Recover the amino acids of this structure.
């Protein structure tokens, strides 16, 4: 691996992944997409890591696909054959989005600056999204003749409803972080100087919680969006049945009755 486009730091039980191509606003090359997926895979497999925090180096979170990446950029010389962007999605973005959405532990995004195109989709695919006041979200796809991808078409209408999702996706305008919070696109906005500490504190808090139940909560909510009410009730019962046999529930209930702090271990 020649270039370290993902900086990895361990802070106790929190694994911090920093998108690290600040000179190109952390735009994703194919190599970087592979490294991000591998970093998520490693965090999922590491039993000591109980929460992942993703942020960006420099002034951006991510400007989305690197439009100059020779692996995918349309050839500019006359007669150059166009590249199949669908193949890029199949090989890089779909595995990344699926990995992110099925992590066995919670994932927090600290959006430190602009999140555009697939950069916005990666941020919004995380479980809790915090953003700096100066950050913004841009569905940049329509500006270059594409549709939202990396989960954008699924995430946006579910987060903000069809009318606002279409407004964002069709116009591709910049949405300020405060407006993103007002529309429920993200969870919280923080002053720029407080973002990283607040995001780390939140990630540490999640890491101390029953992370298996948190991941199952995400799964149940994602599934419930596709189910009728009765089917959702049945899924809740099936997942609750599994969690009820798990260590964390025994520990959580015992700690409550003993009036002590629980020590959760499942994940
Ligand atoms: O292959 C495919 O396209 C399929 C995959 C699609 C998924 C997608 O993500 S499509 C959407 C791709 N992203 C964009 O279209 C966003 C492009 N970037 C921008 O619109 C602007 O850079 C921003 C609004 C994000 C920020 O604007 P600003 O004025 O703050 O910064 P800037 O000057 O435009 O950019 C700073 C540098 O980053 C600049 O390089 P330079 O001139 O200093 O050497 C710029 O070229 C570079 N950069 C920004 N975004 C990208 C990029 N380089 C490559 N790819 C980018 N996406």
């Amino acid at each position: 691996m020649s270039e370290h486009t993902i900086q990895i730091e361990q802070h106790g039980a929190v694994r911090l992944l920093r998108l690290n191509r600040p000179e190109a606003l952390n735009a994703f090359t194919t190599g970087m997409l592979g490294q991000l997926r591998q970093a998520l895979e490693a965090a999922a497999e590491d039993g000591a890591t109980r929460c992942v925090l993703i942020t960006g180096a420099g002034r951006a979170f991510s400007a989305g696909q690197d439009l100059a990446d020779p692996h995918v950029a349309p050839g500019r010389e006359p007669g150059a054959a166009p590249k199949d962007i669908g193949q890029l999605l199949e090989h890089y973005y779909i595995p990344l989005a699926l990995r992110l959405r099925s992590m066995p532990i919670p994932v927090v995004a600290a959006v430190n600056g602009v999140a555009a195109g697939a950069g916005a989709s990666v941020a919004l695919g995380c479980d809790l999204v915090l953003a700096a006041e100066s950050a913004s979200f841009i569905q940049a796809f329509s500006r270059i003749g594409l549709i939202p991808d990396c989960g954008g078409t699924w995430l946006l209408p579910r987060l903000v409803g069809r009318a606002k999702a279409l407004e964002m996706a069709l116009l591709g305008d910049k949405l300020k972080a405060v407006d993103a919070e007002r529309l429920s696109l993200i969870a919280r906005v923080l002053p720029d100087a407080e973002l990283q500490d607040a995001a780390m504190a939140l990630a540490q808090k999640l890491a101390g919680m029953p992370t298996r139940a948190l991941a199952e909560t995400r799964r149940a909510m994602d599934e419930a969006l596709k189910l009728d009410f009765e089917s959702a009730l049945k899924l809740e019962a099936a997942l609750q049945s599994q969690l009820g046999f798990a260590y964390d529930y025994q520990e959580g209930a015992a700690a409550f009755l003993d009036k002590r702090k629980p020590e959760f271990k499942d994940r």
